[in-house]
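Worked problem 6 (solution included).
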Amino acid sequence: MGRARGRMLSWRITQSSKVNGLSGPWPILLYTWLISHCDNLGRFHGEPEQVKSSIFPRRKDIGAADVEAWLQELADSALILWYEHGGMRYLAIPPEVWNREQRLTGNMRNASDLPECTNDVYTAYKRRIDAVCQEMSEPLRSRSEVEVEVEVERNPRSPNGSLWRSRFTDFWQIWPHRVGKVQAEKAWNKLKGDDALFAAIAGGIPRLERSRPWQEGHRLHPATFLNNRRWEDEDEPPVGPKSLFQQLREGQGR
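Solution. The predicted structure is:
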């Protein structure tokens, strides 16, 4: 993949509000160590098991589920692009970030053996960038806005207050793949919905489970489901029988 022996890691990374806004030292360490494993275009394999074996090979206390939650946090924080291609997951440092920090030297080729993300994935990333920037600017809001939120917090019956936050427990009980609870709860609290929204979210989970990616084993992170309003996705046609090629690839055909 053309990985360099060493990557330039600018001191500016220690000043990044997005990096410092991560939930703890492990996702920060994962992000910085990922940089040295990426190829010349900033891409790397995105399957949690493979990332774990590459980044944390000697850590017996870290599992693929931990890495999956941290990767999702990096994606939700707009630090990486995490995408699928041909039934496999890949990741990439956003190109505008990678090209600003990394330089090709000598005979290093400006190419990658890994697929690039689609325009849809990149567009979703740009929307997430705008959301993250808005979150980072929240301390600069006017006093009146803050006072309104304080008043909402004092009223537990408000659809934007404690009542909605308490409904996260109900959501978590019906979610079929429980990983990344901290990130999921953050995404839930941002919605500030009501009973109608909860019913819509709950109704979208069965549609998600019927979708082809889910039935093929690609489990969506709950934070992604909430942040991207995936409960609004339309129902997909039922998954048909697997082709002979798929059966052979999975060791089922002869």
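Discussion: Residues 137-160 have pLDDT under 50 and may be disordered.
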